[in-house]
Amino acid sequence: MIVVPALLLIVLLGGKGAPRTEAYQVRKEISFNWIRDSKDVIRNQTAVLLRRDGYDADRLQVRTDDGYLLTVYRMLPKKSRLGVVLMHHGIRQSSDMWMYLGPKRSLAYQLYEAGYDVWFSNSRASPESDGHERLDRDSDHYWDFSFHEIGTEDLAAVIDYVLAATGRKTLHFVGYSEAGSAVLALLSELPGYNEKLSSVELMAPPAFMQYGQFAWIARMVQPIRALFPWSVYYTRDALPTQICTLFRNECCLLFGQMSDRGTDNGTRTERSPGSSSPAGRAGCFDLEDVSLKQLEHYRQIIASARFQQFDYGYAANLHRYKQKTPPDYCLWDVTARVALHYGNKDKTVDWRGVELLGRRLPKVSELQKILYKGYNHRDFYRNPKAQATVYANILKSIKRHASVQ
Fold first, then answer.
1. Which PANTHER family match (predicted)?
2. Is residue 19 part of a domain?
3. From start to end of 148-296, where are the E strands?
4. CATH code at 186?
5. If we measure between CA atoms, which residue out of 142, 133, 146, 79 comes closest to residue 311?
6. Among 3, 133, 197, 378, which residue is least crowded by beta carbons within 10 Å?
7. Which residues, other chains included, contact 249 with Cβ-Cβ below 8 Å and sequence gap of 6+?
């Protein structure tokens, strides 16, 4: 294992010898490496799939306080609704993931047929969102965000928009994977939003990830990352891009398992946006519709075994957080009703990490924990058996808390 970090260092330096280290300048613009090709992405894929499955939807736009233009869909209600449900996707996905299982089986359709007003949100990373009012989508600055901003900016803006549009005081939130990290960051940092959520249903939520299969590589990269300021670490063609070119299998493990890109599961190939990845690259590391800062934030919480804010380095942390290390998210401020749905075969979000999350949440949150035997990370939206297990439990939970709306 000593050889691997040495090779990583050689790749980063490009054979030119050790660079001269410079003090991190807080005023310096952070630069990230984005190489993407989105010209073939269908920007209203969710609406296409809804129409194909026999449903109509409005495509709406929500502006965040920092200028991102998010796409939100609302399934057109046919009658008086029982309550509002907002559904949010995982990393490297968009709202079309909720149509994966098609009519009758998909959770979104079950909620709609049960009488709920169903909305879908798309983060700033989603190929279905409309970019930024000033920043070009291919620019470095556009992609300067992690799940923290997706929670505190994107979800906050969408929740406020949906409540205003429906005239409701509260809504139910359903999130998969990264949506869990984002909403926990929101409820921790802006605890007033706890009062706006009747219930929070989280499927495979990443928070404490030190038990998963990626722990070893996340820790292996840490000494290399600590040697360089952000301006060097994320310059074009530097780490992690070059490392992932050399150690492609390891990067597939670390970055590829949290999406469903390139799956060969029957109809999904036709139903998935951005499925133009070359053959043989299924699930592997690429830079389409993902911020490297998102990936780095997850690597940090894996390596640190803490659910904490982004680590910018010693000097920048002092400037931002008034302390040397990033603070933990204040999970004791999460007072909304939370249900955790997780699988014992999930190698990305290990069941032990979810149970640790449950212990860190306050008792006032009326926490529910439901373990699904045999479920892996993607089964929560891809496995047809989820209809009778996971989705049935979510429907019961939402119905139980519907009266508070």
1. LYSOSOMAL ACID LIPASE-RELATED
2. no
3. 171-176, 197-203
4. 3.40.50.1820
5. 146
6. 3
7. none
Tokens describing residue 154: 């994107």
Residues with Cβ < 8 Å from 337, sequence gap 6 or more? 197, 198, 199, 200, 365, 366, 401
- Of these residues, 365, 377, 379, 397, which one is catalytic? 377
Confidence (pLDDT) at 168: 94
Instruction: Please state the rounded mean pLDDT for residues 180-194.
Output: 97
Which of 95, 126, 129, 177 is labelled catalytic? 177
Sequence-ordered list of residues with C-beta below 8 angstroms from that of 228, at least 6 positions apart, any chain: 12, 19, 21, 239
pLDDT average, residue stretch 325-340: 95
Under 8 Å between Cβ of 171 and 72: no
State pLDDT tens for residues 83-139.
999 999 999 899 999 999 999 899 999 999 999 999 999 999 999 999 999 998 888
Cβ(337)–Cβ(195) under 8 Å? no
* Catalytic entry in 346, 350, 379, 397: 346
Per the annotation, the verdict on 177 as an active-site residue is yes
Strands 197-203 and 117-121: unpaired
Residues 6 or more apart whose CB falls under 8 angstroms from that of 52 comprise none
Q: Quote the pLDDT of residue 289.
A: 62
Question: Residue 180: enclosing H or E segment and its boundaries?
Answer: helix 178-189
d(CA 117, CA 170): 12
Could you count the other beta carbons within 10 Å of the beta carbon of residue 295? Answer: 20
Higher pLDDT among residues 229 and 130, named by residue: 130
Residue 147 lies in a domain: yes
pLDDT of residue 224: 64
Active site residue 89: no
**E strands present in 89-184:** 117-121, 171-176
Please list, in sequence order, all residues whose beta carbon lies within 8 angstroms of the beta carbon of residue 55, skipping any fewer than 6 positions away: 75, 76, 109, 112
Percent of the chain with pLDDT over 90: 55
How many domains does one find in the chain? Answer: 1
Does residue 346 carry a catalytic annotation?
Answer: yes
Is 191 part of any domain? yes
Q: What residues make up the domain containing 90?
A: 45-209+330-401
Residue 318 lies in a domain: no
Q: Measuring CA to CA, which residue among 402, 404, 391, 332 is closest to residue 367?
A: 332
